[in-house]
Amino acid sequence: xxxMDAVLTRLLTLHPKRIDLSLDRMWRILDRLGHPERRxxxxxxxxxxxxxxxxxAFLRAIVEAAGRAVHVYTSPHLVRFNERIRLARPGGGALxxxxxxxxxxxxxxxxxxxxxxxxxxxxxxxxxxxxARHPADVLLLEVGLGGRLDATNVIERLLASVITPISLDHxxxxxxxxxxxxxxxxxxxxxxxxxxxxxxxxxxxTVIERQAARMRAPLRIAGKHWVVTPERGRMAYRDEHGLxxxxxxxxxxRHQFDNAGTAxxxxxxxxxxxxxxxxxxxxxxxxxxxxxxxxxxxxRLVELAPQGSELWLDGGHNPDxxxxxxxxxxxxxxxxxxxLILIVGMLASKDCEGFLMNFxxxxxxxxxxxxxxxxxxPSEEIAQVARCVGIPAETRDSVGDALxxxxxxxLDPAPRILITGSLYxxxxxxxxxxxxxx
Length: 438
Prior knowledge:
six-stranded mixed beta sheet, Mur_ligase_cen, metal-binding, Folylpolyglutamate_synth, metal ion binding
């Protein structure tokens, strides 16, 4: 049996930095592998700050509902690395198995021959090797960080480039303005290849439009070429081909309408895929994506929560994510008012104040908890930030302790509890609850 943790730990030692944006090392290892990136199924490449994973989830659900075979590459994982690589299989896709993953890693490590290479680069090369070995109709490829110099940006022939909403995040690597970050994201656009953009700020859209013109890439813009709106509990999508009446996305939150719309606009603009109307309906209604306003209904942590309470999980960690989550919570509050309590853990690199200030009106209490990461923000600092934006706050040593504290409050009605602030925290919660992504 393969000890995957030991393999991943070793791969982390192949470069002194976790992040070192460049394509030179990627081209080197792909050349040694015989260029698997040239033998991939047709690719839809997805960049952006927020909503990448959800948009990929909608794309996958719709394309699979149309009976097509789909490979998927996403990051980061929540509990197991295998979540990053989903291979098309007869009867539906499945996460890569440990033995096959380890074999791909071993091949990449052997051919890399000890040269410096980042963890994301060598694991992306392994993913390309796996995708090239298995036939599929489509590969959905999510950017890791940025776009222009991301390890995924080595695919020369694409079906489409997709850019989800852009906001401030990872400023240390991408720049400290929306324009600079948008330029990095728009670096995935390719000459004469369809580009689709989700709703963007004026600053971001201007940069994307300029790059699309430079690449002569036909650009489809949310609000101009396609529109998606909630209507009477359903979703209406409109473009030049007409109107589609669809179920509301089964992922919670108003922002998921835009993510679904971006996926639909992309697929409707690729005639070769021939996605039937029924597949859009089925995909939107059955899509799954963990840790994005995910309701935890069963599990070990759920049993610690007050009886009758609601326990939600979201990995959002920047101010725009916070605004989207608050919108989802406001909708829940309209349908059934409850006291709202946040359990929060964050990394020190994130804008804790910008994130938490979104919740000041809705939340009655924050309980800050640690994350098992070297770069985690101390719980007391999170609590202090919460107090500064007007939310009463305290700390506990774990999510379980936080839930026990909430249970002891005896709130009536039972509260709505949201665990949020980090995908790392979300992964810890899913593992502790026994709710593993599949």
